[in-house]
## 1
Amino acid sequence: MLAPGKPLPEPTEPEAAVVPEAVASEAVASETVADTAPKKKRTIRTRSLFAGALALGFLGGVAGGYTVQALRKPTPLPPLSVAQPVYPRSPLYVGTRPSALPANVDDATNTDGDLAALLLPTPSGAKATLDDHRYMSLIDEAGTCDNSAGCFSTNVIDGVARIADTAWNLSDGTYVEIRIFQYQPGNSNWPAVDLTTFSGRNKLTLPTGIAAAGYEYVDNHDENDDHAIAIHGDLAVYFWVTSTTRVPDPAIINDLITRQMARL
């Protein structure tokens, strides 16, 4: 408490605290670094973001494609049969087609019928075998060959359509067989080719005026054979005359060829 009448002292400012120079320098340096250092940013994992985008795009594409297909109208199927173009008949050939041959002249009416009926009948006194005026399958015919596989493949490749066969035994033990091969359209040249297989052997003298060839030989069973082939259009006719005791008389196979080809 001041005495009465004594003037009040002048106010004075507080003295600043004395800070050592070393401490002041560190404070200034730390403040400067804090103000100039970049702030740490948040990082984004790009790989995870890209994978998520791919998955989202795939799911969106599937959903969008399914929606488009579900809303699309069904496409009608094309018709099973297509109308073929129709071409106008040319007037160039009107009236130029030749008239059909009478049945007694057109032998195709015979050869396209029952081949087995066209085979020569079993002569009187002869004994028919199991191959008595019957049709043979390609497998059955191949079974009569020494090389069954080769015969079967040859008949298939050459286009054989039908085979008719008949056979009989004469009273003197001579065996006779006739076999007709009919070829499919477009393969009728094969019978003529078959004639060339008979060249270079002991040829037989056959009837004139008939496209035929033949030869005589001894087969694998020590049997004497006269074998011949004659052709007529798309038919190839094979003949066998076989004897176990003698060489067959060529007149037998000549007679067979003459009469059989006349029936065709």
## 2
Amino acid sequence: MSLGAAVVSVLATALQYLTQQTDLTYWPDLTVRLAKTFIASVVGTIGADAFDVFEFDWQRALDIAALATLAALAKGLLARGNSGDGGNSRSTPSTLPTTSYLLAVKRQA
């Protein structure tokens, strides 16, 4: 299950970087991350079972995806933190230090 979710997550992130959709402000970037988490979780759950659309436990898959997405939301909100500069710094949805994150997405602080 986790291998399938990891593969989907890597592919979604690669697609995001290839299409250069990395220069997003905080909320759109967090929304993209939450969507990737939700999709990766659902696909990972599907990959864990011998998939049969009529017998697959969709409720369980969606419950797991919702829980993973809520955890990702909490992580993103905690990563935003409070810079203490009156809101003048650019927030990121990453738990990386801001300068490291900006280097990763090639944005200037």
## 3
Amino acid sequence: MMAALHESRDGGLWFATLGGGVTRLKEGELTHWTTREGLPSNRVLAIADARDGGLWFGTQRGVSRWQAGTITRSFGEAEGLPGGVRAVHEDEQGTLWAGTHLGLARWNGKRFELLSPSDGRPGAAITVLLPRAAGGFWVGSGNGGLGYLQESRLVPLTSEEKPLASSILTLHEEADGTLWIGSTAGLIRWKQGRFTRFTRAEGLFDDIIFQALPDGRGNLWLGCNKGVFRVSQEELDAVAEGRLARVRSRLHGMDDGMRSPECNNVGWPSGLRSRDGRLWFPTIRGAVAYDPNHEVAPAAPPPPVLLEEVRVDGRTVPASEWGPIPPGAERVEIYFTSPSLGSLQHLRFRYQLEGLDKDWVEVGPEQRKADYTRMSRSAPPS
């Protein structure tokens, strides 16, 4: 299983795996490093650049240093690292940082030391360490803590008393400082000190966002455990500003070349936009890349929705008798479909019974039925 992706300064693509060590793809050649080459564990969770051109690997058993093809040194529990390292970062001053399940650890020249709560740390279970455009680096955690560290001071955007209501899985920062946060509770935009959350209710295909990668054409590509879907950043901004109710999501999965539609997020970086513009996503069956330089056909208009069957209290109502629901009905079932020639996994349906449903109900292709029970005990539809 792929855990993390990274592009080194020399153009090599690096793939960290859960069990197979780390692999480099450079000039068409694959090279592998495992415990036989000096890694402390074949479960590699994180990759980061070192300032001198080397690399740092975060593993299940600590941090390793790679230089010119060789694992030169490793740090583990003996040096103060508590267990697996999910994220690693070397800052502008050359200080090494490691994100662990107990919190953020800093190398002091002799051993690693954990930042304490009094240091304003964003919580335990550090998941993301991302360089910040204005200096320092972003820190995200699995308990919803988010902030940035600059000049040895951690500035929290959330606190342990007021975290985001989800685990932070990925971060992407725009040139203007806007931060896109992928989480277990949707996509979150942080802009000018304000958080805005987007979920399926606002048009996203899924609520668990593993990756958020820009394609340079005004779109974000979001990885989830059902595939990769694309949304317009202009539409996201319009929803955040109240000018639009929902965004449009376009899903890409096995019909578009993926071996498995299930992306994952178990390490950092959890996704990659390489220098050639390709977008890389880790999946349970390896890495998948999309090239936005190859034009994707514009989305076709949504296909029509057809009613297949209506049942009232278990009795099928002939189509010639479809009309007002008779008084006293206890249960109404409405079956629907669409004559789309595209992939079934791309279909999404929305329905609403005025007077009963407060908002639109969204379902996928596996549930093409609206089911209402205890109708006689409910307020009559308006």
## 4
Amino acid sequence: MLRISPLSIFAGAGTIAASLCAFAPAATSGSLETIRSQIQYLPIQSISHEFGSKTMSGFFVQQADACYVALMVIEKNALDTVPPPSAMRVRLVMSPGQVIGLDSEEGRSVNLTCGERAMTMLLDIGDRDKLVAEQTLALPNNVAKSH
């Protein structure tokens, strides 16, 4: 019987996500200054979003009731131009309810929230100030009060 570890699935899916990063469509529409949206993802479902001058692509897997997240962040460029410098790979382990934020210099941001039992990932898209405030609200009381 063939046995595949969750880590092997995570590594294989990361390779696929990285190779598809440049071709993944954006998950937004309209002005992010005025529109706030939420998108829910399931494990190994492609997460893709453009914010400001960057494109983010990746996925998450559920392991030991935590979200193991792999993201690639690259500069956007036109297909007929020289490719941008190498991408930045971000690897995260998030507990359910934990929120991480990614911001662009243009004021557009995304928050990623690990869902209950790490079965889903919620992507919030919107204005940086509003998403930072929401991220602060998700902090445990003892951490939020010290900031």
